[in-house]
Amino acid sequence: MKTQTVAILLVALIGFSVAQKLHHEVDFITYASDNVIEVDGNVGDDIHVRIKENPTTGFNWIIAKESPLFKGLKTEQEKFIRQQSNGVFFPGTGGYKLMKFSIQDGGDKIIDLVQARPWELNTFKDTQGLINWTEVFQSNHAIDRKQIQVKVKA
């Protein structure tokens, strides 16, 4: 009887530890000089990203979702938070963008974030209206790029 109870508890404990979903934080505000950050994760984990943005300049952080290395990730949230002082928002000031991604399947993945004026990327669209990110990255187009390399454990 004791052996069965211990076995059941052990199986429950192992199942609980395997089923836990982790939340990985990537903060490009604190680590602004980093252009590449690595995340080790599992299927089902979330990746939370925070990055400075000022859309009043026309520049936005754009997720390169059409990139082949983005497959297996899902964008759960994209939200801009305006900067404020004592509860007051000031026109023209920036803030930061919050993004949340979930890992859907195995294999290494890359989240490319590109700061650009969205209309300037129209020249890189194919006949289906999808941006060819390889051409963008190989061009002399002035963009800022941050990358999250996601290593998904088997």
TrEMBL record:
It comes from the Eukaryota. Keywords: Protease inhibitor, Signal, Thiol protease inhibitor. SUPFAM superfamilies: ICP-like (SSF141066). GO terms for molecular function: cysteine-type endopeptidase inhibitor activity. Residues 1-19 form the signal peptide. Residues 43-123 form the Proteinase inhibitor I42 chagasin domain. This is Proteinase inhibitor I42 chagasin domain-containing protein.
